[in-house]
Structures are given as C-alpha cells and as structure tokens.
Amino acid sequence: MSISVFFPTHGLKYVAGKIILKYYVTLHVSDRSVNVCSRIKTNYYMLYQSIRHLVIMITILFSFAACKNEDVSENAARLRIKLTDAASPVIRELYIDIRQIEVYVTDTTGNDGEWVPLAFTGREYNVLQLMNGKTVQLVDQYFPAGKKIEKIKLIPGNNNRFLTVTTENIPLNIPPEIAEGIIIENVNAILADHIITSVVIDVNAALTVRESNGNYFLHPVARAFPETFGGKLRGFVEPVEAVALIAVVHDGDTLLTLPEADGMFMFTGLIPGPWEIHLLAHPEENYRDTVFTDTIVTGQVRDIIPKPIRLWPK
C-alpha cells in the first residue's frame, strides 16, 4: 500500500508542503511493516511543531513591521495655536503676515530648551476680525508629551499692512530687531500625553503699529497663554450711537475692544482679581463715560450686571 502527498505550488500551503517534504514524500507500507497509524501520528506531530514555529516567526516579523509604522499620536500631546486680537479705535483693518511659527520647549523643570518649528504653511490674517473671544486656529498637531512651551516665535512675512478709518492700504515695514522673529515670552503651557493643549496668541492692535518720520512699522505687542488660563469678562453696552470703546485695566496692563453689533464685548485670559472696566464714549458723541470694578475668577465667565450697561447723554 502507498500513501502519496501532493503539494501546492504557491502560498502558505506551499510552505507547509515544503516542511512536509522534509520528512517524506511517499510513505510505503506493506502488510509486514510496523504499525502505520503510529508512524502517521509521529510524522503529523513533527509537522505540527514545524508549522507552529513558522507561525511564531511570521508573527514576530509582523510585530517588527508594526513598530516601524507606529502611530505618531501614541503617548503624545496635541498642540493647538490660536490667534485673537484686542481692538484699536483708529485702525479699521490690520493684516499680519506670518510665515513661520516656532515654539521654545523645555522639559517640565525648564531645562534642555530648544526651538522647534511647527506645522504651519504661512498666511496673512486680518486680526481686527478676531475680537471679543473670536479666534482663528493656526496650528493643530501632535507633539511629544512631557514638555513645556516657554516662548513662541512668529516669523513675519513682507505683506503686512493696515487701513485706518479714513485711508487706503498703508504698508507696514519690518524693523531689523524683529526681522528674524517676534518672540512672545511667559507662555507656560504644559504638554501632557493624550491632552489637547490650546495656546492663544493675543495681539494688541492699538500698540502694534508705530510711526517714524512718515513711515509705519509693524512692531507687535502680544501675549500668549493657555486657553484655560485665568477667567473671562463679558458684558453688553448701549446705545450704539455712543460708539463705545471698552478698556480693562489691572496692575498696569490695559486691554481694549470694541463691541459687536449687538453691544456684546468679551475679554479672555484675564488674571484673577479686581479689574477696572472703562466704557468710553466717542469724544464727538454726547455721552458720558462709565467706570467701575469687577472681579475675575479662574475658570469662570464673569457676566457684568446690569445687562446691558447704558451710557447716558451728557
């Protein structure tokens, strides 16, 4: 009696067949031979062991391949950079051309610092469209966790300009001291794994444009802070005819904004504590200014009462 074993010519079955071939191709058994069942069991056991080893080797190879294609989000932080603005009473539009953004990162103790470019392709922004809590996102990327952002650098392009309430486009020159970048200090944003950290860059438009001998220069005054920092202040002012400018003051820091069409105004990223709130009517309008104090609490939106605040005629 003979038992013949046939093998495929490709695929995993072909590999298994080659292993079987290592032991026998044709098994000849006669009536006087040893127990056929015993021999078949022995050879099938050897076949099982060989295939088992093959499967283990294939698993190890796939594991190495998976390591080479590791997901960048694994154990990483997610960093978002946003842009907002404080108003100017005399500038109608302010375009800032940003070519590149870098962050200065250290470990959480402030050591081993380095500048790291972010995934930003460059664009210009009319920052005066970003008042009263509105923002535009500049960056959204994964970043190594366990780091601290201490500084942000904005590298300017050459298409900066502004419009006043009475003029056309006026180009803004780049002074030599910021040609290589506008550095914003004291960011203090911690990057933790599996956490989204949003950092807001707040440009003070009223102090960003400077004039010298008839030429205008871009010299941004800006701060940057984690989006969860401090508290917020929100209020409403009327009438529209007062053309109010709102200023908030704390320990020498002054922030400005103009109300929306419905009279709403908002400030974000305010240091906790008392703030003076100034509602200033346009000098050519016949309305009285109003000044009062309110207290900011971390993590809360402070809504000013009454709602709205009314400026009265003189």
Description of the structure:
This protein has about 325 residues and is α+β, with helices and mostly antiparallel strands. It has 3 domains: about 1-70, no CATH class; about 70-230; about 230-314, Immunoglobulin-like, CATH 2.60.40. Helix content is about 15%, strand content about 45%. Strands 4, 5, 6, 8, 9, 10, 11 and 12 form an 8-stranded antiparallel beta sheet that branches. Strands 7-3-13-16 form a 4-stranded mixed beta sheet. Strands 17, 20, 23 and 24 form a 4-stranded mixed beta sheet that branches. Helix 1 (about 10-25) packs across helix 2. It is globular, with a radius of gyration of 35 Å. Residues about 1-35 have low confidence and may be disordered.
Q: Could you give a short description of this structure?
A:
The chain has 314 residues and is an alpha+beta fold. It contains three helices and 24 strands. 23% of the residues are buried.
